[in-house]
Amino acid sequence: KEIEAELRGAIQRDELSIYFQPIVDLKTGRIRAFEALVRWFHPERGEIPPQDFIPVAEDTGLIITLGNWITRMAARTAVNWPEDVTLAVNLSPVQIHAPGAALGILAALRDAGLPARRLELEVTENLFVADNAATAQFMDMLAVEGVRFALDDFGTGYSSLHYINKYPFRTIKVDRSFVSGPNTGRKSDAIIRAVAEMGATLEMEIVAEGLETAEQVETVRRAGCTLGQGYHFSRAVPAHLALRLLQDER
Ligand code: G
Ligand code: G
Ligand code: MN
Ligand code: NA
Predict the structure, then answer these.
(1) How far is the CA of 49 from the centre of ligand 1 (A)?
(2) For the chain, what are the domain ranges?
(3) 152 lines ligand 2 (CB under 6 A)
(4) Half-sphere exposure of 244 (CA within 13 A, CB side)
């Protein structure tokens, strides 16, 4: 409850900022997108992780305002990037349900002057509980405008393939548990290869998440993933450093 009260004022008090983590083309090594990740720097409590306040924002409905704010602020940064660099923004399932949510996102884009085709919304399959008409309507409305969708944390939820079959996803983000940690090896490699092969057939982008070593990068590249993300390339950085990463490679 404390977090809720403080979160309400956090935007006004300028305590929230958006960080950006690069998503890299595994063939060319160039940055193809940045994922926007919200950060809360509390003056007394220090940094409060999104896992602690996003659920609160979802429970209270604050996520609608917060989500539109995040999209708007991130889009204002993204207009300074080269035309072909995509902005990826995480979407809460609560946002999908809210009436007018699609319009809120389009308004944020318009306000920032970012073309809809440069936005990709990431939806976590774990939380993709809203498998109904409203979800289809939400996605179609934005897809018509050119917004793309990524299925986030792929492989950790259920009905993943159902969602890919039913909804207009352009990108699959393979969860980092397949890339590093205790459950990786021959089996996880084979799963990544199979997902990458499916992605190629469906003309989808396959992002390998959580790449922390050069060896992991090489493994997923050989498995056929088109894009990679993780600490090996960069952590999420503030807007001015994201811009510098782009300038450094041009
Ligand atoms: O930011 P971090 O790298 O710690 O992310 C932790 C979790 O919080 C992830 O699941 C991420 O998707 C989520 N998250 C981070 N930023 C946002 C955001 O802007 N909106 C939503 N809905 N979730 C976010
Ligand atoms: O759920 P989502 O994929 O949106 O969450 C992104 C989260 O993953 C953020 O908390 C981000 O900081 C984290 N992350 C990004 N790259 C890496 C990585 O290479 N290793 C680990 N352990 N976490 C990462
Ligand atoms: Mn994500
Ligand atoms: Na993820």
Answers:
(1) 9
(2) 2-248
(3) yes
(4) 7
